Amino acid sequence: MRKEDCFYLGKIVSKYSYKGEVLVKIETDEPEIYENMESVLIAMKGGNLVPFFIDRCRLHKSLLLRIDFEEVKDEPAADRIMNHQLFLPLSMLPKLEGDKFYFHEITGFTVEDAVHGNIGTITGVNDTTSQAIFEVEKEGKQLLIPITDEIFIGLDREKKIVKVSTPSGLVELYMG
């Protein structure tokens, strides 16, 4: 399976026991939905995603999963996967309702501004900064629009439209 067809679940951050159990810091608001997984994909050296099957998986503290893999039964085996990233197929993401969305699902959506109308198409979302940003392209120009409660109004999944109300001057800054 390719990384593009998966979502990042978390990273193995430490060993839990001498029997190979590991702790995974997961990136989610609802860690409990991942407690009963049967397998995950681990990004190995070179970037290959390798399936690992799970004997037991349970929540440990707030955002940690304690995982006992079938293939990892001692400390040296746990050391080999330490600090590796875990992925799951996109099909395993829970469906979101209303105005909640996953960043990957809105790529290609049209951005409609309350004042300017159609201001382009979302080419991606930059979430490496402290504030996530819509990357929007129109007529070869790129607009960067912060994703805040004040700017994001809503979305229409059927029509593939993200509705925003940009601050005065933002669109002109990029399009002018």
Automatic annotation (TrEMBL):
InterPro entries to which the protein is assigned, alphabetical: PRC_barrel-like_sf, PRC_RimM, RimM, RimM_N, RimM_N_sf, Transl_B-barrel_sf
GO MF annotation: an example: ribosome binding
All copies of domain Ribosome maturation factor RimM PRC barrel, residue ranges: 104-170
Biological processes per GO annotation: ribosomal small subunit biogenesis; rRNA processing
Alphabetical UniProt keywords: Chaperone, Cytoplasm, Ribosome biogenesis, rRNA processing
Domain RimM N-terminal: 9-89
Pfam families, sorted: PRC_RimM, RimM
Family membership: Belongs to the RimM family.
Domain comment (free text): The PRC barrel domain binds ribosomal protein uS19.
Quaternary structure note: Binds ribosomal protein uS19.
Function: An accessory protein needed during the final step in the assembly of 30S ribosomal subunit, possibly for assembly of the head region. Essential for efficient processing of 16S rRNA. May be needed both before and after RbfA during the maturation of 16S rRNA. It has affinity for free ribosomal 30S subunits but not for 70S ribosomes.
Protein name: Ribosome maturation factor RimM
Classification of source organism: Bacteria, Pseudomonadati, Bacteroidota, Flavobacteriia, Flavobacteriales
